[in-house]
Design goal:
By secondary structure, the protein is an alpha+beta fold. It folds into two domains: 9-257, Beta Polymerase, domain 2 (2-Layer Sandwich); 263-322, Methane Monooxygenase Hydroxylase, Chain G, domain 1 (Up-down Bundle). 56% of the residues lie in helices and 14% in strands. The protein has seven helices and seven strands; from the N terminus they run E-E-E-H-H-E-E-E-E-H-H-H-H-H. It has helices spanning 43-50, 57-63, 122-132, 140-173, 179-212, 220-286, 301-322, and strands spanning 9-14, 20-22, 33-39, 71-77, 80-89, 102-109, 112-117. Helix 6 runs antiparallel to helix 7 (301-322). The longest helix is centred in the C-terminal third of the chain and has 67 residues, at 220-286.
Length: 326
């Protein structure tokens, strides 16, 4: 889904039993809780956020921050304690890079959830699809847990692709593939793994923080689902760690192979230099411009010198082979 196709504001009333009903995004909360999903660039969404029914200045600043990392923080607004949590998901929009992760900022209260977005997330579509099938969240924190699980589901194929890529590179590193052709792909793979990992572990910490918060409206079922989401995110982070380490091993192998190639080339040049060193000495000696040079007046002296040089070369090659240098 692209920006143009994504609804700018959404509202759902959930009854706490898994059933959801689409309502105007600014509808008052009924039995259960209401979920307001707003694009902060939309005029109606921005007006509601800044209006009297919005979350308040302190929370609003966190919701609209231009750059955020995953975190979980408690705030008090209008005499009630709520939870701000920021999560990130892989960017699966057309033409985008997965590591360009998309932020979803969420404000939780016992009777409502306010989520703010700028770019669409496919995990949100998954969550809405479940609600339309009667499998909606039973509470605000359950919504966060389900969303985190959907984010992990969407990230797993990306991590699996990285695993397959590093498998292929490990196989190529011990084959005949040129190290030069692999360096660019390897660097891109490591960069992707590093960027994804940079958000996975803070996301794990944010979810685990929410799971242990002392909130009377956070049920044991929701805590259990948050712990499940935390475990999934942890596993993805560990896989990214392993990918990064395996990529480093492949890079070391490529560096070692390149060093071996350079040493082999230098060794060959050294052998060639050793063969031509006495020949250069001989030709230099015969080329000095002084009187008394033997054979200077003899017509066949040149061919004698050529034969002598061929003989010296043959002796050198035989000696190098005898010493197992070539």
């Amino acid at each position: 889904m692209d920006d143009a196709a994504a609804p700018m504001v959404l509202g759902y009333q959930l009854d706490g039993e898994g059933n959801a009903e689409a309502v105007p995004f600014d509808a008052p909360a009924g039995p259960g809780f209401v979920w307001r999903h707003l694009n902060w660039l939309a005029s109606e969404g921005s007006a509601w956020l800044h209006g009297p029914d919005g979350p308040g200045e302190e929370v609003l600043e966190a919701l609209l921050a231009p750059e955020t990392r995953p975190r979980c923080t408690l705030y008090s607004a209008a005499g009630r304690t709520g939870v701000f949590i920021n999560l990130r998901g892989v960017n699966l929009n057309e033409g985008a890079s997965p590591e360009d992760m998309i932020s979803i900022r969420i404000w939780l209260l016992p009777d409502q959830v306010v989520s703010v977005w700028r770019r669409p997330l496919t995990a949100i579509d998954d969550l809405i699809g479940g609600m339309e099938r009667g499998q909606g969240p039973v509470g605000p924190c359950d919504l966060v847990a389900r969303l985190a699980l959907r984010l992990a589901d969407r990230a797993e194929p990306v991590v699996a692709t990285l695993n397959e890529a590093v498998d292929a590179m490990e196989e190529a590193a011990i084959g005949d593939v040129s190290a030069r052709s692999m360096r660019g792909d390897l660097a891109e793979l490591r960069r992707t793994a590093i960027v994804l990992r940079r958000y996975m572990f803070p996301q794990r910490d944010a979810l685990s923080t929410l799971a242990i918060e002392d909130l009377d409206w956070l049920s044991e079922r929701e805590r259990s689902r948050l712990r499940e989401a935390t475990d999934r995110i942890t596993r993805l982070g560990e896989e990214l760690d392993a990918i990064r380490e395996r990529a480093a091993v492949v890079q070391d192998q490529l560096i070692e192979r390149r060093a071996e190639e350079m040493n082999r080339h230098m060794y060959l040049l050294s052998i060639v230099a050793a063969i031509f060193l006495p020949l250069g000495f001989l030709t230099g000696l015969l080329g000095i411009n002084v009187g008394g040079m033997p054979g200077a007046e003899t017509p066949w002296a040149f061919w004698v010198v050529c034969a002598l040089m061929i003989g010296v070369t043959g002796v050198e090659v035989w000696l190098f082979r005898r010493l197992k240098l070539i």
